[in-house]
Amino acid sequence: MKFDVNALEWTRRPERCLITPDRIEIVTRPHTDLWQRTYYHFRNDNAPVLQMETEEKFFSFVVKTEFAESHHRFDQCGVALYLDSENWLKGSIEYENERFQHLGSVVTNHGYSDWATTEIPATVKSMWYRLSRREDDFCIECSEDGATFRQMRVCHLHEAKGKIRFGVYACSPEDSSFRAVFTNMELTECAWRAHDGQAPDQDC
């Protein structure tokens, strides 16, 4: 399986973008986001997502993100797997202020989102992500150098049974806009190895 930009399709096209074989740029629109219900009690589903489709059940997708222009609260860009408005996941860095930003992930199942984060310095302006699939389970990892990846989350998507779509996204939930850059996009064999510890329960 090869990551081919010609196979990518938009879920909501941004106002401005650039797509070449080795580089994607998205300029965000203000008031764009992905979120469903939990805690805030609102639903946002208007961020642009650029994805390819596959039925492959075991693979890893790697991408480098650069966001030197992000400057406003919640500006974000990263990796995404978007099935529909109520079933998706994303991993990204969300700008907060001049001191720190949030490195985190959101998983949305059946219309309810969660958000797992950790604070990192606001001076970080690039990050690699690796999204791995093992059937309907997923692992999101991050790396500052593209070589050593650290686990961010292991999760399950209830509706990711067969064909899925995955790729990149960028958005600005408040009154802001910035340029997100995606490079070094690669598909590999699944780098998330099968579990070798406790055996599964018999009814799994």
Structure summarized in a few sentences:
With 204 residues, this protein is mostly beta strands.
What does this molecule look like?
The chain has strands at residues 9-11, 16-20, 23-27, 34-36, 43-45, 49-54, 58-66, 76-84, 87-95, 100-109, 112-121, 126-134, 137-143, 150-156, 164-171, 179-188. The strands form three sheets. Strands 1-6-15-8-9-10-11 form a seven-stranded antiparallel beta sheet, with no helix packed on it. The protein has a seven-stranded antiparallel beta sheet with strand order 2-3-16-7-12-13-14, with no helix packed on it. A two-stranded antiparallel sheet has the order 4-5. The chain is built from no helices and 16 strands. The radius of gyration is 16 Å and the shape is globular. It has one domain (5-188): Jelly Rolls, CATH 2.60.120.200. The chain has 204 residues and is mainly beta. The two termini are 29 Å apart.
